[in-house]
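yo

u said u wanted the structure for the complex thing, so here. seqs first:
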Amino acid sequence: MTEFSSKAPEPTTPDEERSPNQGNIAAPINKQPTKKRLRLRPSTFWSVRRGIPTWLKIVMPIIGIGIPLIIWSILSYGGFVKDIFLPAPTRVISTGIELFTEDELIKDIFASASRVLGGFALAGLVSIPIGLLMGTFESIASLLNPFVSAVRYMPVAAFVPLIVIWAGIDETAKYLIVFLGIVLYNIAMIVDAVRAIPDELLNAAYTLGSNRFVLLSKVIFPAALPSIMNTMRVNIAGAWNFLILAELIAAEQGLGFRIIRSQRYLQTDRVLFCILIIGIIGLLTDFLLKQLGMFLTPWYEQGER
Amino acid sequence: MAKTLPLTTNSGDSPQAVEHPKLSVHGLSKSFVYQGNPLTVLDDVDIELKANEFICLVGASGCGKSTLLKIIAGLMSPTTGEVRVEGEAVEGPGSDRGMVFQSYSLFPWLTVAKNVEFGLKLQGFSKAERRERIAYYLDVVGLSRFANALPKQLSGGMKQRAAIARALANEPEVMLMDEPFGALDAQTKEQLQQFMQEVWERTHMTILMVTHDVEEAIFLSHRVYIMDAHPGRIRENLHIPLPEHRELDIKIMPQFLELKRYITNQLGH
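structre next:
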């Protein structure tokens, strides 16, 4: 489907046979008026950055979730796939209820969530000042860049054995893995955010009498805050990734631990439900961080800066 | 440097025994290395501003006038030469040289009043003094009603007026303006030219403004520095023999048009 409706050109028509009142219209210089005009037909569905009507906003997510759900149902209820590989949706739900009522799943959720939040908060505390300093001062960037860029490309999973040697297998190790997993991404993204602050904002601060400390704390930090909040939103998803990794090593509770143990007993329904829970928690944290961002930077509007 | 900052600037009387110009630039040059070749942007520029003068620097685009202003503000360093404020050589930026930029450099997270307060806080004014100055300068620029508005709620012209209030409130020795109305539409631009004339009449601030708009330069200034391009040099220091108080309709008077034709010719040379 093309968005361009082209008036069919008639290149074969000889010049003389074209519309008789040609003389009244200002004739094009090159005498080739049958040029193909490119005109865009308006479209509701394919509108670019223009928003869609409410009904479409409601219908599209339903389709988006509905189609996979239908396929899942057909595969499982229809008996195309064995229960052990893909349990039916209702089975997953009832197992989930069971997990909550009889198996104290809420404790695992709490354990996992506090590991994510702990590691994530620690990463924030470290990465925000470092990112601000690196983004502001070329010298600090040069100092830390070799380390930050190199380590960023080393997979955190590879560090896990080392972390176990250093920190053992208790909670510290889990916080550390989550922390290590996201701190360098945080730094890199915050550095970019600081560098994107327009010069004129800094120049205005200078000509009002700012010293470097004022510049950093009163101008660069607030100017970068919306991007910092966005960075946090993006990277908390990563934090969940690294949590599961952390819980692979000798955890006694947590969603990752549940998933691993259920896999061992081929309890696919439990695995699926725990993944579902992580997704829901993810959506919830994303929403909360978005609200926090709007609360902290009400002045910000996309594309303003 | 001990500095007194009266709310109303003394316009007539000379404050010091040894009279230094408010701002002077001596033998200032700036060259870059561009794609391996040295490029001289400014060549041996000398300018001088006396207290309470409103001076415009006009030049074709690319003549280095904005670079010159940035060097004066201390946001860039010159290759040779120096900048003096009241006879004292300065390096780096400071609150003695306030600046208004072309695009809106208001801090978007601060209200209009807080933007104006930014420099005042740094200078260590008490809360009462700050409040008084904010009220005064917001009144000067006609934004008293918008004290608590965020920059995003203001129109382009209002943002620029707020930025001017912020620079004025610091009561710098000289206010530098870098094409401050360049991004505005024609009507707003004329309104702000008139407004700037009124601001000057009220505050007698020493102002150095960069513009490529010849009409704007003549309308606002007491003197105009005409710049050559490639390399940027001061071609002429032209006195504008118009009355101090001007209304917009002066722009169609023969004397004004004569000046405009003259400067335009000089620029196109």
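Chain A is about 70% helix and 0% strand. The two ends of chain A are 37 Å apart (CA to CA).
cya
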